[in-house]
Amino acid sequence: MTATDTAGDERLLRRSVWRKILGRPELGSVVGAGAVFLFFSVVAGSFLQPSSLSTVLYAASTIGIMAVPVALLMIGGEFDLSAGVLVTTSALVSSMFSYQMTANVWVGVLVSLLVTVAIGAFNGFMLTRTKLPSFIITLGTFLMLTGLNLGFTKLISGTVSTKSIADMEGFESAKKLFASQLTIGSVNLKVTILWWFALVAIATWILLRTRFGNWIFAVGGEADAARAVGVPVFKTKIGLYMGVAFAAWVSGQHLLFSFDVVQSGEGVGNELIYIIAAVIGGCLITGGYGSAIGSAVGAFIFGMTSKGIVYAEWNPDWFKFFLGAMLLLATLLNAWVRKRAEATA
Amino acid sequence: MTTNPETAPDATHGRTALVELDDVSKYYGNIRALEGVSLEVHAGEITCVLGDNGAGKSTLIKIIAGLHRHDAGTFRIEGEDVSLSNPREALDRGIATVYQDLAVVPLMPVWRNFFLGSEPTKGKGPFRRLDVDKMRTTTRAELLRMGIDLRDVDQPIGTLSGGERQCVAIARAVYFGAKVLVLDEPTAALGVKQSGVVLKYVAAARDAGLGVVLITHNPHHAYLVGDRFVLLKRGTMTGSHLRSDITLDELTRQMAGGSELEELSHELQRAPAPGHLGGPAEKE
């Protein structure tokens, strides 16, 4: 036996560092991001300026904050189509609650946190109780929230947007937390970038180093097996939906405190962008595989593309086409790299 | 059929059975999945449950594993009446179940699978984290102890062979202090050699003092290791035997449905091969 003790390692030598890198879920997206970065560096002269990069990072962070929990949810085997409008809902709730109750905006912000997380829990609860596909459940929530956003806003403020809350108590401090800027040297960095990085770090920690993370992979990979060995499948999934809701709350507060009014129709369509960022980042659409860092790279690709077109001074009418083509290419590259990695593993 | 289930192997031992089912039934709506089944599992013994497809083997497993509650009869664990509501409860009572196809999460590394659902942690509060080093080294050591030498505990468990996966699952159950090991068709999808390897681990678990429930439709595998045999057919128990009471031939005959098999072999001999399968030229 002593011989085989080390024999395991002798065969291990075949698995080089390079092979380990190839086996990472986010590899394809990193290669894709490098390609996009190089492309815009060449075609858009101002792309490499620090101020441009901070704008790109900002654009990436607004998507990235949501892409992180959406990626975790996808690893857990589920979708959330309501994530986009939930951001708007969250902003509307804190704005209108603050305005109507004439309280400190912080009260509105906290009420919004409760409401948003409750909606997330509702998604998870409905999913685990009814056992319907999450696509259907969250499509229902998506439509209901879209209607509620518009209906309530018109009912309360008479128009499709909320009233300004900029002169209310607590606005400045809340703005500091959710929508301020940090100046480092000559570069202005939005605080959402910090939120984004923090969420990526926390999500990575959870995913790779906690029991909950182990359960996320398990419920997405093979829910029946996970349940059979004692993993609380339902609680894990509900927790993931509440995670998405928490990030929606952060995004929603950013939306509110950077513009101080909220358009009730916003957010529709963003849920797909979050999902796509997660998929580019290497999440398997069927669950059980992926990473939080990958979702960040996916969001970064989005940021670079949307702002790169502006810096390249192209007609923005072409933006959507270009975005779609970029996505397709990055995802194909991702799939190709992964296939090669698996073939040689 | 040949033995009265109520009196057969019971009370042959003075000690309490680890698991005892007495006249247990399970219905799904108006479907009778299981009726009047009794069995005993003792420490250091292997109880084989034999039956064809649809005999109720899976239902029986699900009751013991805590996935379903039984509807009638008594289910005792170490002498205590129980009605398990979830798999966690069964695990806490020392019953570990290894399923044929859903024993593991294929995309996850071996070491994560090994500890899934019972992960050791270290640290406090927000820094409570998986004890990754312990998980890796324990997985490697436990598998080696059972004679499984893995190249890499980081490889996805889906890359292991079927037999190896079964062995990992068995090693996992033994490590977590299971008293009763329930194995669902561990050899069903395996070749002869791999089946032998798995049966060896089953015997090793028995020798370690565990009570084993081995579900199978292969009487040859059952007879190699079994101490007690329970035969199921269409949801009812058709026989319950101690090893000393029955021969392999008799077991095979009962298992295959006895006279039905003779009739079948008769039919097969005489039936001419259909034209579209190559006319009268019979294969094998």
From TrEMBL, chain A:
Kindly list the places in or outside the cell where this protein is found, as annotated in its UniProt entry.
Answer: Cell membrane
- Domain of life from the UniProt record: Bacteria
The record, for InterPro entries, names: ABC_transp_permease
Q: Does the keyword Lipoprotein apply?
A: no
Q: Which UniProt keywords apply?
A: Cell inner membrane, Cell membrane, Membrane, Sugar transport, Transmembrane, Transmembrane helix, Transport
User: Which stretches are transmembrane?
Assistant: 27-48, 55-75, 106-126, 132-152, 187-208, 238-261, 273-306, 318-337
Pfam families cross-referenced by the UniProt entry: BPD_transp_2
For membrane topology, the record states: Multi-pass membrane protein
Q: What does this protein do?
A: Part of the binding-protein-dependent transport system for D-xylose. Probably responsible for the translocation of the substrate across the membrane.
The name this protein goes by in its record: Xylose transport system permease protein XylH
Q: Which source organism does the UniProt entry give?
A: Streptomyces xanthochromogenes
Taxonomic lineage: Bacteria, Bacillati, Actinomycetota, Actinomycetes, Kitasatosporales
